[in-house]
Task: inverse folding
């Protein structure tokens, strides 16, 4: 404006426009269709924020340094220029200096004819790309990039979110029927199937682990594992996980119908589960913490927080902590986590064929997880006198409590006498434990 | 180039490990239930005896 103020229009391109539409769809689904509004509203709005150029909310600063000593022959970019990963910033007589990320030039620090030594700064650039900090260290300078770096990349928010989930989770239905733990375990097959598929499609091992863990249907686990193993794809995996959790009512029913007969879906289960004593509920988080962390130490941040949150809930003497974790604290974490996730979706980051592939593999992960749960439930029926409705196996896809609700609705349709919700909550919460363990196993092997 | 041997070990070993741990937990939950029930029954029996 009058040469004084640079507007965002000159940097706005079709990719930003498409992302604004995607953000708008998220907000529409949340408000008009009531689909996971607590997640989709902040994610959708954050997508808008990072696709309005020069807003700077998700900016990182990075100094590009000379790989070798030499004389500057030509500088090929000016301040404010936008570039893609691998573009040439300047030509030295010893070689070219390339951009390691996409972004725009903040400041050029050399001029033609100048002598530079190896490691001297050539340019300061601004980027919104998530990088492997050991190779391309960046400094966050925007509000959301700071929250993202210190909340997610430092692995603070996902475990704390698990603490809140622990405080919100009633393990009673699972403790009343411990067999359901096996259904939650079976559903983790989806994680490993998607992992294999990702490798087949050419993803690296750490990326494949991060894509596989989407099948655990636990947002914090997916974010935690991806932030450590493959931060460059964290936007796509997190969005896939949270979007599919909202789409569980669409993904699960066809899988269940494909693998079960009408008669199986109508199997009646007594609505009453046995009463679980308070002492059992107190002992469970303690025993689980010790057993799981001894076997899979890398699951400690997630499992430890999950179980301490649950102990707050069940012990009866920390009601204040439990109430805070279930209300204000979980809401605050949700705001930080979801705004950060949406902020990983600037057009340059998100509009890649890789992202589309990750979204497809995410559906595959969810569907195979549900299928494995149903199949194991059917196998268990072959050996047990008291039949279980195989649909509750599909609730092993964590997505608490959405998948259990889907099973309840389908069960009622097939047999109006059936109340499967509490039965389905068993594999549902077992799936959350299974996903955290699967994440820990990936980290233990691949990190 | 993908090391398919390693990938198979991660997938097979990983899934096996998750299944094993949850199976162990299921067993421990069942044993805890038995133990806690016996303890609860024992203490309620002794309370009744004291009343009589």
Result:
């Amino acid at each position: 404006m009058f040469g004084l103020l640079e507007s965002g229009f000159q940097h706005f391109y079709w990719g930003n426009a498409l992302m604004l539409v995607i953000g708008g769809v998220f907000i529409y689904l949340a408000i008009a269709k009531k689909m996971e509004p607590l997640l989709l509203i902040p994610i959708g709005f954050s997508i808008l924020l990072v696709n309005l150029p020069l807003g700077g909310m998700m900016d990182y600063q990075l100094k590009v340094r000379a790989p070798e000593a030499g004389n500057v022959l030509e500088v090929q970019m000016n301040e404010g220029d936008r570039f893609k990963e691998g573009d040439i910033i300047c030509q030295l007589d010893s070689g070219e200096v390339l951009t390691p990320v996409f972004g725009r030039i903040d400041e050029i620090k050399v001029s033609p004819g100048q002598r530079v030594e190896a490691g001297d700064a050539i340019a300061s650039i601004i980027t919104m790309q998530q990088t492997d900090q050991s190779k391309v260290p960046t400094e966050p300078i925007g509000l959301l990039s700071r929250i993202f770096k210190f909340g997610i990349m430092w692995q603070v928010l996902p475990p704390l979110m698990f603490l809140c989930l622990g405080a919100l989770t009633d393990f009673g239905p699972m403790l009343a029927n411990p067999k359901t733990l096996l259904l939650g375990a079976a559903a983790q097959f989806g994680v490993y199937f998607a992992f294999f598929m990702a490798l087949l499609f050419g993803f690296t091992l750490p990326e494949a682990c991060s894509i596989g863990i989407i099948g655990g249907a636990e947002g914090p686990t997916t974010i935690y594992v991806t932030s450590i193993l493959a931060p460059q794809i964290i936007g796509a995996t997190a969005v896939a996980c949270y979007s599919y959790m909202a789409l569980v009512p669409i993904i699960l029913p066809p899988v269940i119908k494909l693998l079960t007969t009408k008669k199986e879906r109508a199997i009646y289960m007594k609505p009453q589960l046995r009463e679980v004593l308070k002492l059992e509920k107190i002992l469970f988080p303690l025993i689980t913490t010790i057993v799981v962390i001894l076997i899979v130490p890398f699951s400690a941040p997630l499992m430890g927080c999950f179980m301490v949150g649950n102990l707050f809930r069940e012990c009866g003497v920390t009601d204040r902590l439990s109430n805070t974790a279930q209300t204000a604290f979980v809401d605050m974490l949700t705001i930080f986590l979801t705004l950060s996730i949406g902020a990983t979706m600037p057009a340059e980051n998100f509009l890649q064929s890789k992202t589309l592939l990750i979204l497809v593999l995410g559906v595959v992960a969810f569907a195979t997880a549900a299928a494995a749960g149903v199949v194991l439930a059917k196998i268990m029926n072959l050996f047990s006198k008291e039949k279980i409705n195989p649909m509750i196996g599909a609730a092993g896809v964590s997505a608490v409590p959405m998948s259990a609700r889907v099973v309840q609705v389908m069960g009622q349709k097939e047999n109006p006498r059936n109340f499967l919700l509490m039965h389905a909550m068993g594999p549902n919460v077992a799936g959350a434990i299974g996903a955290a363990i699967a994440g820990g196993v990936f980290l233990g092997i691949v990190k | 180039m993908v090391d398919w041997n390693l990938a198979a070990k991660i997938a097979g070993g990983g899934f096996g490990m998750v299944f094993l741990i949850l199976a162990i937990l299921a067993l421990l939950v069942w044993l805890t239930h038995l133990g806690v029930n016996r303890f609860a029954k024992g203490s309620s029996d002794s309370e009744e005896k004291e009343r009589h």
